[in-house]
Design a protein that fits this description.
The structure is a single chain. The chain is mostly helical and 145 residues long. It folds into two domains: 83 residues, no CATH class; 41 residues, no CATH class. It is 51% helix and 3% strand. It is built from seven helices and two strands. The two termini are 14 Å apart.
Length: 145
């Protein structure tokens, strides 16, 4: 964790939703903030990668195509509809699966070691309440104590 970011440089929480799909508004927010030259620098390295890339794959869309569509403008809901028309529509069960992935990422899985390292690097190794990447992100970005 670097210096505390200016809240104006941050997208929303990974737990926020668009039409029942977690993380989607965060990914779009990162695209918009980056294009405006305002995205917190700590988030630059993973643009289009990590959870951004996993969600693009889950939606069956190309991240660069999504980025171009976001920069054309429109609401998160409109862009999600575009994704589902271009890629695939998501059922409520598929959204449930994705949302479970988002809320548990880092808890006893392939990302667990990364979460432990990020907590240690940020001086949060003793924070047993931070069990997932979503919780870590919200603490790191100042949304959660």
């Amino acid at each position: 964790m670097s210096a505390k970011p200016d809240p104006a440089t941050l997208p929303c929480s990974p737990l926020d939703e668009t039409a029942g799909l977690k993380y989607f508004p965060r990914m779009l927010g990162k695209i918009r903030l980056h294009a405006a030259g305002r995205l917190w620098e700590d988030l630059h390295a993973n643009l289009g990668k990590s959870s951004d890339g996993v969600l693009a794959d889950f939606l069956h869309i190309n991240y660069d195509d999504l980025k171009a569509r976001v920069l054309q403008g429109g609401s998160d809901e409109e862009i999600l509809r575009w994704c589902q028309e271009r890629g695939r529509p998501l059922s409520d069960n598929e959204k449930l699966v994705w949302n479970h992935y988002v809320i548990t990422l880092g808890w006893n899985d392939h990302i667990a070691a990364i979460l432990v390292k990020r907590k240690a690097d940020g001086g949060l190794a003793d924070r047993d309440d931070i069990q997932t990447m979503a919780h870590y992100i919200d603490v790191d970005e100042g949304r959660r104590p």
